[in-house]
Amino acid sequence: MSAPKSLFDKVWDAHVVRKIEDGPDVFLIDRHFIHEVTSPVAFLGLEGRGLGVLFPNRTFATADHNTPTINQHLPVQDPLSANQLKALETNSAKYGISHWGLGHAKNGIVHVVGPENGITLPGMTIVCGDSHTSTHGAFGAIAFGIGTSEVEMVLSSQCIMQPKPKKMRVNINGKLGKGVLPKDVTLFIISKLSAAGATGYFCEYAGDVFENMSMEGRMTVCNMSIEMGARGGMIAPDETTFAYLKGREQAPKGEAWERALAYWKTLKTDEGTVFDIEYTFDASEIEPQITYGTNPGLGTGISQNIPQAANVLDGAASYAKSLNYMGFAENDQIIGKPIDYVFLGSCTNGRIEDFRAFASIVKGRKKADNVTAWLVPGSHIVEAQIKEEGILDILTEAGFALRQPGCSACLAMNDDKIPAGKYAVSTSNRNFEGRQGPGARTLLASPLVAAAAAVTGKVTDPREFL
Amino acid sequence: MAYDKFTVLKSTAVPMPIENVDTDQIIPARFLKATSRVDFDKNLFRDWRYNNDDSPKADFVLNNPIYSGKILVGGRNFGSGSSREHAAWAIYDYGFRCVVSSFFADIFKGNALNIGILPVQVSEDFLHKIFTAIEADPKTELEIDLPAQTITILATGEQESFAINGYKKNNMINGYDDIDYLQSMKAEIAAFADKSLY
């Protein structure tokens, strides 16, 4: 009998075209997503070398990073952004790549539209010039972010050259407490492992906490894998995965579906597989989380105080710099901190379940006067669902407006910038200095924590409202 | 894009003893709007380097004339966060050819190697020795010998070995790149892709 293999090994090994001795694997890519920011120089490179796109039907383009989230029917005002969006359109047309640009009915954030249209499937290898490509691992795919040189490699040869990462598994079993969402699970893991704790590894999430999660929840968890340094994260596909995919536009149909399904059912880690490192937590340890520092590892349970330097993994000088930027001090209570902005959206928490969770708290309440709230759906499909389900009415009644899809304030490339010195409770993925605008101060949290902050104007334990 | 070949580099170094230097610090997202590789060096460490009115921040190391060189020395977990290759471009175009740290984020490390920056990972102890040596004398030179895979603090003779796979090492020494390699095996790739389920 052959040695037991992990889910990760099975998918990786099936895609190695060539192994280079004392070097990387030449690795075949099944699906390649591109957006306007990290692709133009790759296309220039192709031109410079006189190369074409080897398999244009395996690359998908969507505009998201730069797009405005209001008045999308008008010309984009920032000339640089408009130029990048135009370049994506022109390059896609030139090489025959499917392009869902601004205004297209299926436009949205790349990591939202891939799965919801059935482009992302179990067992695939998926890359994009964006580190949150790890999102697609929720389907049992190997998915990770790449640089622009690698975008050029995939366009020209459908391959990249990668050394195989080491294997990590994070196991969580038990029942999650009231008000604890998938975002809290991932922020909890990252706070335990630190922002660099999984560097060099590819992470599998296992245990009934993940088995019982929806696909949206699994995407939130896998999305954040990069925030602990992991190249990606993945969860074995199961009936939840198959039910989500069945009937999606680009998912296989009829006989092809049955054939794919039979293969997908083999995609799980064999009994007895040994991981390079393994962590186990109990679901009961996790309360709603929030970050207080300038990397995603600097987070804690919302009822806790900001830790002392001796109790965090970062060095004392870096920790002091981080708290200074945030305007916080060791031992501060986090609950009750006044906030100015709330951002619901991004590839981490811009899906329908996130809007349902947010609405569950703001229903029948009012937005706090001191809060500016930006609610940004991950795609037009999510936007339509928000309207169909009556969530928009709840939000409007509570004093919130819905914006149009895009990456928005997650990285503030468009006009959605948090002003310097202001505090934002954000459902996105990074709290780095200036990430949401120069001088902006970000507290990462779940949609429930964001909703509780939006109606109270300060950091509030959402369990008070549930 | 072609890059300078790398064999032995002897240079002074710029010290940045900060952990978790993420790629949003190296180059903030709002400076990623170009459609060609120009001027990224101007916005390298933009928000640490300049005030809002574009005046230089006197206390930032790149604005301190006593530090210069082709080597950037950073704290643990250098290059974390976003996959933007623009971060590596900004560092290269500014004039750095090597980044030394005790730990690199994966994507940054790959991007650096692909564009001709050598990431040299040293022990925490050796990193501390480098910072101490530069603090004592900003003119301290480091020697990075890629064929021998060693890094040396020339003033003290202290030396450490670093790891790099043979394939990438050969690329760096000769200025080769992965795209040419992949082009050379296109038929093999096409045959493999034909059998793919997807």
Describe this structure in words.
- Chain B: Catalyzes the isomerization between 2-isopropylmalate and 3-isopropylmalate, via the formation of 2-isopropylmaleate.
- Chain B: It comes from Emticicia aquatica.
- The complex is a heterodimer of chains A (466) and B (198).
- Chain A is of the alpha/beta class and 466 residues long.
- Chain A has helices at 7-13, 40-49, 79-95, 110-116, 148-157, 182-193, 208-211, 215-223, 239-245, 254-264, 316-326, 346-349, 352-362, 380-388, 391-397, 447-456; strands at residues 16-19, 25-28, 31-34, 59-62, 98-100, 125-128, 142-145, 159-162, 166-173, 201-206, 232-234, 277-282, 289-291, 299-301, 341-344, 372-375, 423-426, 441-444.
- Chain B has helices at residues 23-26, 46-49, 86-94, 106-115, 124-136, 166-174, 178-183, 186-194; strands at 8-16, 71-74, 98-101, 118-121, 141-145, 150-153, 158-161.
- In chain B, strands 4-3-2-1-5-6-7 form a seven-stranded mixed beta sheet.
- Chain B is globular.
- Chain B starts with 7 loop residues before the first strand and ends with a helix.
- At the A-B interface, helix 2, helix 3, helix 5, strand 8 and helix 11 of A face helix 4, helix 6, helix 7 and helix 8 of B.
List the defining traits of the structure above.
heterodimer; A: 466 residues; alpha/beta; Aconitase, domain 3; Aconitase, Domain 2; 3 domains; five-stranded parallel β-sheet; four-stranded parallel β-sheet; 16 helices; 31% helix; B: 198 residues; seven-stranded mixed β-sheet; 7 strands; 17% strand; metal-binding (chain A); Acoase/IPM_deHydtase_lsu_aba (chain A); IPMI_cat (chain A); EC 4.2.1.33 (chain A); iron (chain A)
